[in-house]
Structures are given as C-alpha cells and as structure tokens.
TrEMBL record:
Reactions that this protein is recorded to catalyse: 5-carboxyamino-1-(5-phospho-D-ribosyl)imidazole + H(+) = 5-amino-1-(5-phospho-D-ribosyl)imidazole-4-carboxylate
Biochemical pathway: Purine metabolism; IMP biosynthesis via de novo pathway; 5-amino-1-(5-phospho-D-ribosyl)imidazole-4-carboxylate from 5-amino-1-(5-phospho-D-ribosyl)imidazole (N5-CAIR route): step 2/2
Gene Ontology terms describing biological process: 'de novo' IMP biosynthetic process
Binding positions (substrate): 3, 6, 33
Protein name, entry field: N5-carboxyaminoimidazole ribonucleotide mutase
Keyword check for Mitochondrion: no
PANTHER family: PHOSPHORIBOSYLAMINOIMIDAZOLE CARBOXYLASE, PHOSPHORIBOSYLAMINOIMIDAZOLE CARBOXYLASE CATALYTIC SUBUNIT
The entry's keywords: Isomerase, Purine biosynthesis
GO MF annotation list: 5-(carboxyamino)imidazole ribonucleotide mutase activity
Protein family according to the UniProt entry: Belongs to the AIR carboxylase family. Class I subfamily.
Species whose genome carries this gene: uncultured Bacteroidota bacterium
Pfam families for this protein: AIRC
Function: Catalyzes the conversion of N5-carboxyaminoimidazole ribonucleotide (N5-CAIR) to 4-carboxy-5-aminoimidazole ribonucleotide (CAIR).
Organism ancestry: Bacteria, Pseudomonadati, Bacteroidota, environmental samples
Length: 170
C-alpha cells in the first residue's frame, strides 16, 4: 500500500487471502516518498516467492503501475477512495497503463475483489486454493438463493396472473 491510510481497504484483500489459506506480505511502500524501496520491493518479489502483487493507492495512485514496471508478476491495482474525487482519480491513474506494463484493476475500494482475483490467479496452479475458491463461490450462490427463494410448484401461476404483452413493456 502506498500509505497506512490505505490499510482499511487492503485489509479486505488480506481477509480473503487468509480465507483461502494464501500467505501474504502487508507493507507500506510509497512510489513517491520511498521510490528506491518501492523499486527494490518490486524487483525482489519473484525471488521472495510472491505469485501476485496487490497494490493499493489513492490520488495519483502510481504505486501499482510502478511496481508492475519492476516485476514480471501480475499486479492487481486497487484504487483507494479519496476525499476530493471519491477515488475516480485513483481509478484512472491505475487503469490507464501504457502497452507492455499491464495492471489488473478492480473497483474503487475493491480490496475484497483484489484478494479474490489474486486467489483465482494462484488457483491456476494450486489445487487446494482452487477447491477453496469453488467452495466459496458455492457459498455465495447459496447466500443469493436464500435471499430469493424459488416459488414452490403450483405457486408460480399465482405470481404471474396474466402473461405479459410485449407491447405493454415497450
């Protein structure tokens, strides 16, 4: 993360990584205040055994792109909501990368999805993570179904009293 103020959003990514049993590092490495440390972090990530980097930043939000320029690992950028522009500045900064230096970008404040996306990348080669993801997605489906149960047989005709006329819908 670019600053410790980014922690609440990136903590959501950490929670998801923990859920899938994926070890992670949580560091403050600023692209602007400590550029040499940031470059070293990106360059050494592969040899430290990292498989994916999740980088969150607000405002100018250069951290994800700068890390991507120093590593061959996939980088997931998390735009942090900002006080003045709500995070749209962060989003544009992260998503508009030049050709050859990609950064996968999740929604503004999307720490949870960043953690899930990192797990999906790791699941391409780690069967245990793949199985945990499948179970998680099945759980999401069950939660969704529980909020909107299907009508029992015989109740369906009660819910639709008359067929819709296409002309009425236009």
């Amino acid at each position: 993360m670019g600053s410790d103020s980014d922690y609440p959003v990136l903590r959501e990514a950490a929670v998801m990584l923990e859920r899938f049993g994926i070890p992670y590092e949580l560091r403050v490495v600023s692209a602007h205040r400590t550029p040499d440390d940031m470059a070293h972090y990106g360059r050494s990530a592969l040899e430290r055994g990292l498989k994916v980097i999740i980088a969150g930043a607000g405002g100018a939000a250069h951290l994800p792109g700068m890390l991507a320029s120093h590593t061959v690992l996939p980088v997931i950028g998390v735009p942090i909501p900002t006080k003045h522009l709500g995070g749209i500045d962060s989003l544009y900064s992260i998503v508009q990368m030049p050709a050859g230096v990609p950064v996968a970008t999740v929604a503004i404040g999307g720490g949870r999805n960043a953690g899930i996306l990192a797990a999906e990348i790791i699941a391409t080669f780690d069967r245990a993570v793949q199985e945990k993801l499948l179970a998680y997605k099945a759980e999401l489906a069950e939660q969704s179904r529980a909020k909107n149960p299907l009508p029992a047989v015989g109740e369906l005709h009660m819910a639709i009293e008359k067929p819709y006329d296409r002309d009425e819908l236009s």
